[in-house]
Amino acid sequence: MSQTKKLPKKLHFIVIDDSKLDCFIAEKIIKNTGRSESITQFLQAQEAIKYIAAAPPPSPDCRTIILVDIQMPVMNGFEFVEAFEKLSESITSGYTIYVISSSINENDIHKLQSYSSVKQFLNKPINSNMLASLLV
Amino acid sequence: MITPEKIKVLYIDDELNNLNAFKATYRFDYTVFIAQDIPKAYEHLAAHADICAVLCDQRMPDKTGVEFFEEMREQYPDPVRMLITGYTDVESVINAINKGHIFRYIKKPWTDVDIKSAIEEANKYYSANSLLSNKNKELKSAYEELGKFAYNVTHDMRGPLLSVIGALELAKTMDSLEEVKDILDMMDGAVKKLDEFIKNMHEYYNLKRSELIFNEIDFNKVVADISAFFRIGGKMDNVQFNYHVVQNEVFFSDEIGLKIILNNLMSNAFKYQRRNADNKFVDVSIEVADNKVTIIVKDNGIGIEESHIDSVFKMFYRATSAETGSGFGLYNVKDAVTKLNGTVELTSVVNEGTIFKVIIPGKQNVTN
After folding, report:
1. pTM of the predicted protein model
2. What does the alpha-carbon distance between residue A129 and residue A32 come to, in Å, rounded to a whole number?
3. A21 vs B163, B318, B320: nearest CB
4. Taking Cα atoms as reference points, which of B349, B274, B355 lies closest to residue B304?
5. Residue pLDDT tens, chain B, 368 long
């Protein structure tokens, strides 16, 4: 788990979830926190990786929060994190990953702890208070 | 019963005369392998995994028979081990049997009766053990499947439910009726997904647990039943549906199994269409000839990527995140086809479409 640094006031968000409803919920909740500069949604993790790899390197005063689901077809949350960690540090340093899932499987949660880029695991359903408390 | 294969026996002795005599005597009754030294014995064991009995002389130049058996047991635990020796020291024979887990001890010079009864007994023991070990393997794989099943079912059932819970909480905070209506629509989708999953699970259960019931099948009626269901559900909107059935003979099969196959294939064909294509179609062709039915379901939808084709029949495998899938449908198709002694194959090109071809033999001699 990475050390806590003060987050900038305005944040960019990326939501990755194969459920349209969950993307919609996440978007509303993020908007409710009043901290979002932008919200980008992906129903497919591989699209998100392409997007992140191609995006310009983040500036130091800007941070992007990624909310990613675990169980998704084609590329799941674990595979996404693995692909993300292979990107160059100049890119990855601008992002913070939160994994959101309905998983109550201990192995999954345990496995997540082995990824240095994953800041925290959150249980679904997420709500505004939960999210706001993370973004301090 | 089919003629059983000859029992495979390996005999190890440093005296060539003994080996030759043994082979000459038993080659008609058994498949005999002989080895004059330990390395040769291992060559046979490596080449023939189904050797049932190994007979070894106790007095060998580099190793005793017991030592060899102790060592062999590590790598080849299955063949039944029998020691041949002229050794009369009871104490050391007992010790040898215990240490080397030897099934039988045959006294030298052996008699024909000794050898034959020993090999027959060894074979019985070996067969019972392999049966047990196969059952154990089946049990282990069933257990693993169950674990995976529970894991996936938990997620697939909780997923839509948690979505709805999240959406409900959110809806409570909404002031605009329009927004609430939007979120209700999406909740509707999540609940239907859960329902589809449960229906598929029921199909799975039906296939696993129930006996097949063979009845006369009228394919025109089967297709009409299923397509009426799709039409009412609005799944056929904007998709041209054509079907033709050629059936000039009586066909007996299990109707539930056939419906599971056709229902899933058609459901996929309607579901995985290209959203903006303007000539969307689903063609179903069913031909019964020579007591065999050939079912072809063809669409011009999104197709399946080549790398996923081998995996689509696996349980919980989903090759796309477009549309909602339970990861159960094609598994159930494959399961039903297998139960009906049929075959299923598919060809697919991304953005051009997918063709599923199922062939199922009719049941013969159905007595009512």
Report:
1. 0.60
2. 9
3. B163
4. B349
5. 445 678 999 999 999 999 999 999 999 999 999 999 999 999 999 999 899 999 998 888 888 888 899 899 999 999 999 988 876 667 767 777 777 678 888 888 888 888 999 999 999 999 998 889 889 988 888 888 788 778 777 777 888 888 899 899 889 888 899 989 988 988 888 888 788 888 888 887 777 777 888 999 999 999 988 888 777 766 677 889 999 999 999 999 999 899 989 999 998 999 888 888 888 999 999 999 999 999 999 999 999 988 888 888 887 777 776 666 667 789 889 989 999 999 999 999 999 999 999 999 998 866 54
The fold for domain B212-368 equals: Heat Shock Protein 90 (3.30.565)
Considering only alpha carbons, which residue of chain B is nearest residue A44?
A: B321
Which residues of A have a CB under 8 Å from any CB of B? 18-22, 24-25, 28-29, 32, 43-44, 71-74, 102-105, 124-127
Contact B163 A124 (CB under 8 A): yes
Q: Would you kindly state where each structural domain of chain B is located, as residue ranges?
A: 8-110, 140-210, 212-368
d(CA A136, CA A6): 7
SS3 B273: coil
**Beta strands, E only, A82-134:** 95-101, 118-123
Burial A92-129 (b: 16+ CB within 10 A, else e): bebbbbbbbbbbebeebeeebeebebbbeeeebbbebe
Residue in B151, B189, B320 closest to A21 by CB? B189
CATH code linked to domain B8-110: 3.40.50.2300
* Residue A46 neighbours by CB under 8 Å, 6+ apart: A74, A75, A83
How far, in Å, CA of A68 to CA of A83, rounded? 13
CATH 3.40.50.2300 fits A11-128, yes or no: yes
